[in-house]
Amino acid sequence: MSSPLESLDPVSIWSHFDAIRQIPRPSKHEERIARYVRDWATEHGFAVRADDAGNMVVVVPASPGREGAPIVVMQAHLDMVCEKNAGVEHNFMTDPIGIEIEGDWVSAVGTTLGADNGLGAAAAMGMAVDPNVEHGPLELLFTLDEETGLNGASALDPSIVTGRILVNLDTEEDDSVYIGCAGAAGIEASFNLERTSKAATGEPFELAIRGLRGGHSGVDIIENRGNAIKVATRLLVAALEDGVEFDLVSFQGGSKRNAIARECFVRLHLEPAAHRRLAELAETLRQELEAELAAIDPGLAIEIRPLEAGEALDEPISVSDRDRLLRVIAATPHGVLTMSREVVGLVETSNNLAVVTTEATSATVLCSLRSSVTPALTGTLQALRSLFVLAGGEVEEDAGYPGWKPNPESPVVRQTVAVYERLFEEAPHIKAVHAGLECGILTQKIPGLDAVSIGPEIRNAHSPDEKAKISSVRKFYALLRELLAELGTNAA
């Protein structure tokens, strides 16, 4: 069966991405994609070095006459964020990603596309075998488990990397050259829940928040997109303050620490009068959010539906624990906290209220924090820890990963900018990103590593609305090809 990607140019990148998107590769389950890369390397006679964490380097000889150039490391991660819309039948452990093309865009069908970072991996592989690409010695560094905290890079054995020029292929704007990134940390609070043995009051309902864009908790946080957890909590706290009686049974919002929560589902019991009043409050909130979110998140839907017969509910959460949980979620900050004073338009510090779940006897609140200023990250962690402890929670923290300090004068940055200007007759935007790039870890682990990051245009990464711009992939490939040629002329 033919693939819709077969007709796209350049074939060298799209053919590799077509193969990659058909291989299941959730974070922590990259065995099949790693085996594919290793088999591909063997087929082309490329040596492979791997470490105990599963990261691998594919060693690509220089084009004839360029053997004396310095080694360039092209780096991408092999895992992808696995998100799908409610009602979409897709098993990320077994099913290939479905593809559709509309105009200048490639997207998936109700799931994440995996262009982050599948296109980066495909570009590295394409460069290695494209006869039209002239380059010096290359090391293709493929890391694992990036999307759950840059864990592969953190566990990297630096001895498998010998190059000292790094071209990271994991950014998502084709008119930009990235030279820095934020560091990150995580915090998880657990709260005991007591269930009441009394019979629930009223009929069972589900409050569903859908239609929000979600997105990457670093890249997209600046847009102040809606957070489904916050929307649900805002409605329920408004109901508490309005005197609406309801029994809370479960709260499930968000699914990934590095994704803005798109959906939230709350199960509760309501008497008829309480149901009518909650519906009125929901409509009022919808109108308020329509004004607040405006064009940035126009698809919000708030639904209160009766549960079908047979959709069993647990016993209700006690009133005191219900109120404590809802209040602490309402008090947890989400979004941009401060903007950078040094880099115009760069988010300095943010918090993503990522996931809230309830089980039989406990509730969990998970947040992902980012900052380009380490003391600010520490201070935000302290504030959240204090909030959760005051609410009776038990707190665990994830130390996360370091940032990548911008250096506009780095040799590889200056060469990348010069190549971009020569190719496209305009200057690129020089940026730092409020998200995690493996460059921060790699530059710490590998002394003397000089890094830059480039990529094609990818929209809405980490959400089922993820899409890649076809013309941008051509532009990215051309930039990378010319950059490798430029770097490959330097004497060792």
Q: What's the number of extended β-strand segments? A: 21
Write down the overall mean pLDDT: 94
Helix content: 25-40%
> How many individual helices?
11
C-alpha-based Rg, rounded: 24 Å
The CATH homology group name of the largest domain:
Zn peptidases
* Shape-level CATH architecture of the largest domain: 3-Layer(aba) Sandwich
Q: What's the story with the biggest beta sheet?
A: 9 strands, antiparallel
CATH class term of the largest domain? Alpha Beta
CATH topology of the largest domain: Aminopeptidase
As a percent range, the share of strand residues is 25-35%
Overall 3D shape? elongated
Spatial separation of the terminal alpha carbons? 47 Å
Overall tally of domains: 2
Query: Helices and strands: which structural class?
Result: alpha+beta
Characteristics of this structure?
492 residues; Alpha-Beta Plaits; 11 helices; 6-stranded mixed β-sheet; 30% helix; 9-stranded antiparallel β-sheet; elongated; alpha+beta; Aminopeptidase
List the helices and strands and how they pair.
Layout: H1 11-21, H2 31-43, E1 47-50, E2 56-60, E3 72-77, E4 99-102, E5 105-108, H3 115-129, E6 138-143, H4 151-154, E7 165-168, E8 176-181, E9 183-192, E10 203-210, H5 228-242, E11 247-253, E12 264-270, H6 272-293, E13 301-306, H7 319-331, E14 335-339, E15 347-358, E16 362-371, H8 374-390, E17 394-401, H9 411-424, E18 429-433, H10 439-445, E19 450-453, E20 458-459, E21 467-469, H11 470-487
Parallel strand pairs: 3-6, 3-7, 7-19, 8-18
Antiparallel strand pairs: 1-2, 2-6, 4-5, 5-21, 9-16, 9-17, 10-12, 10-13, 11-12, 11-15, 14-15, 15-16, 20-21
